[in-house]
């Protein structure tokens, strides 16, 4: 269901712009690949060499540039070639590019919130598949920009192609709510 006021012109581009909290050029890459420092704060961190995971638990906050991600649990899953422990054992600085190449996916769970400016995405779970450059939001996902909102059962963002798919169902249909711009709408004349 889309809520649109009569007499106002709206473009579906607004809905696409709302989804672009992740898709806009470089947004997801800012979190995982940037010259700026990546800051992760949590109550606990567990590095499990056997399962090739790094888990941050309790009051997790990830910050880089103008993006802030909060959740209850963040797990980094290494690929089959991953050896995170050697990255930390060298005694020198960790080479982020080398670590990122070893990551299969990153899962954020529990009250997931991603904020960049006036754009906010929330869900119970968000999974970023590094190689496929795909983000999947599940558990009552909502993407909002200002007062505009987009909801569904499942939101899939393909960062490589720029394609976004919002899926709904009988209990939770896709819903887009767009508010009129505060800027006056120019009337077009046929001349």
Summarize this, please?
The protein is α+β, with helices and mostly antiparallel strands and 191 residues long. The chain is 16% helix and 45% strand.
Descriptive overview:
The protein is of the alpha+beta class and 191 residues long. It has helices at residues 12-23, 27-32, 84-89, 96-101, and strands at 2-3, 39-41, 44-48, 53-64, 67-78, 103-116, 119-129, 134-138, 142-145, 148-151, 154-158, 163-167, 175-177. It is globular, with a radius of gyration of 19 Å. The protein has a domain at 2-38 and 64-77 and 105-177: lipopolysaccharide transport protein A fold, CATH 2.60.450. Helix content is 16%, strand content 45%. Strands 1, 2, 3, 4, 5, 6, 7, 8, 9, 10, 11, 12 and 13 form a 13-stranded mixed beta sheet that branches. InterPro entries: LPS_export_LptA (IPR052037), OstA-like_N (IPR005653).
List keywords for this structure.
191 residues, alpha+beta, lipopolysaccharide transport protein A fold, 13-stranded mixed β-sheet, 13 strands, globular, disordered N terminus
